[in-house]
Specification:
Elements: H1 5-13, E1 18-20, H2 22-35, E2 40-45, H3 57-68, E3 72-77, H4 81-84, H5 99-113, E4 122-126, H6 128-131, H7 136-143, H8 148-151, H9 155-162, H10 169-185, E5 189-193, H11 197-209, E6 216-220, H12 246-254, H13 261-268, H14 273-284, H15 290-305, H16 308-323, E7 333-336, E8 345-347, H17 348-354, H18 361-369, E9 373-375, E10 378-379, E11 386-388, H19 389-392, E12 396-399, E13 403-409
Parallel strand pairs: 2-3, 2-5, 3-4, 5-6, 7-13
Antiparallel strand pairs: 1-6, 8-11, 9-10, 9-12, 12-13
Helix pairs in contact: 10-11, 12-15, 12-16, 13-15, 15-16, 17-18
């Protein structure tokens, strides 16, 4: 275990939005070092979707930092709370998920989470282990400890109540069930995004009410997406998936606004604060081109998700496409089959959709109008362009600067 209390405090606090309560955290860390007893650091994940993006890794990175300092990471898979659905930031009731879907998502979550966490030092538990056996009397006992007024202190509940938007009683159960998770494992610290602040505080209250030492609640900022405006979200398309290919991740990181660079360093890497401060100083006061910091950031992120060699390869691939403006050596191949061809001809719109370079005919036309499509390095401007399919063999279709397809005929 890391024995330097000052260093533990610095690492624990780095990049956080809020710590409730910091004085208690300092005291708890000091006792932990003195007694050589690791703290139990809790993070709950509800597997409501099959994949995670870098926004989800912010709290995972913080949990990994606690692991590296010698503390015990407890990852709670909310297979039972996922059936309720976290109301955080929601204006409507979440749709119910089948247990089979939740289990399948949980399996995928684990594979992706362990790109960040040390799997050998992580205890993984499902909260169905203690929530499912609860009897009605147990649930009534838990709910009796909280008032409706307390629940309505939560921002999203308050907004819905004031807006005359329905709130299901079941939704009130979510923060109570998450709080019971803390009781079940007797957690010392719980991590979450800023949207989880209310839930984490309810955990502190329930622990105190049931005679446990109150956990420290640490909230992390929500990661801003690639657009530099909204939080990272798949629905907004401003995300980087943790399973995306290294080349794609590198290109996306290089596309972020300069204003996000230091925030990404603080939230997505485990570099010491002093090193990040030095990078910030080089950009802001010494006039260093931010592109160098972006390159380094991209390689660090890929190194975490994959390995250093693939990070180096991704940088080389980026240079081939962007700096040297060459076509990469390895290009995904798209084979045109007979069912794609009409009388030996194929439209550019159909080709883009079939090859996966466009999501729909409308998207394909929009890309062409915006000048994003090239064939053998010649820009396509005609949305009605028709190819003779034999002439397509070996052609390189390019969308933007990063996406290529080499055409073949089956």
């Amino acid at each position: 275990m890391e024995k330097d209390l000052k260093k533990q405090i610095e690492v624990a606090c780095q990049g956080t939005e809020d710590i409730l309560v910091k004085d208690e955290l300092v005291k708890m860390l000091g006792i932990s070092i003195k007694e050589n007893k690791p703290l139990k650091v809790k993070l709950g994940l509800d597997p409501t979707a099959p994949d995670i993006h870098l926004g989800h890794t912010v709290v995972l990175n913080k949990l990994r930092q606690f692991q590296d300092m010698g503390h015990k990471a407890v990852l709670i898979i909310g297979d039972y709370t996922a059936r309720i659905g976290d109301p955080s930031g929601r204006s409507t009731l979440r749709p119910k998920l089948d247990p089979e879907v939740i289990d399948k998502n949980a399996e995928t979550y684990m594979k992706q989470a362990f790109k960040i966490l040390d799997s050998e030092k992580t205890e993984v538990v499902k909260n169905s282990e203690w929530l499912q056996p609860l009897q009605l009397a147990d649930i009534l006992n838990l709910t009796s400890r909280f008032t409706v007024a307390r629940m309505l202190e939560r921002d999203d509940f308050k907004k819905r109540f004031n807006g005359n938007i329905s709130i299901a009683i079941m939704e009130f159960l979510y923060p109570i069930m998450q709080a019971y998770d803390s009781v079940a494992i007797n957690s010392d610290i719980e991590l979450g995004g800023t949207d989880q602040r209310f839930n984490l505080l309810v955990g502190r209250e329930l622990q105190k009410d049931l005679g446990q030492r109150q956990q420290i609640a640490i909230t992390m900022p929500l990661l801003v997406g690639l657009d530099g405006v909204s939080k990272m979200s798949k629905s907004l398309g401003n995300y980087i998936g943790v399973t995306e290919k290294p080349d794609e991740i590198f290109g996306k990181v290089m596309s972020i606004p300069d204003s996000l660079i230091i925030g990404y360093y603080r939230l997505l890497t485990r570099l010491p604060k002093t090193e990040i401060d030095s990078i910030e100083k080089q950009i802001t006061t010494q006039g260093e081109n931010p592109v160098f910091a972006k390159r380094n950031l991209a390689k660090i992120i890929i190194g975490i998700l994959y390995d250093k060699q693939q990070a180096e390869d991704a940088e080389q691939h980026f240079d081939i496409i962007f700096k040297e403006k060459k076509i990469p050596d390895e290009i995904p191949e798209f084979c045109i089959s007979g069912e794609d061809i009409t009388e030996g001809r194929m439209s550019i719109v159909n080709l883009l959709v079939k090859s996966g370079l466009a999501e729909s005919n409308a998207d394909a036309k929009r890309q062409i109008i915006q000048g994003a499509i090239k064939a053998n390095d010649v820009k396509i401007t005609d949305i009605n362009l028709i190819f003779n399919t034999q002439g397509l063999k070996g052609m390189i279709i390019q969308k933007g600067k990063r996406f290529f397809r080499k055409i073949n005929i089956q």
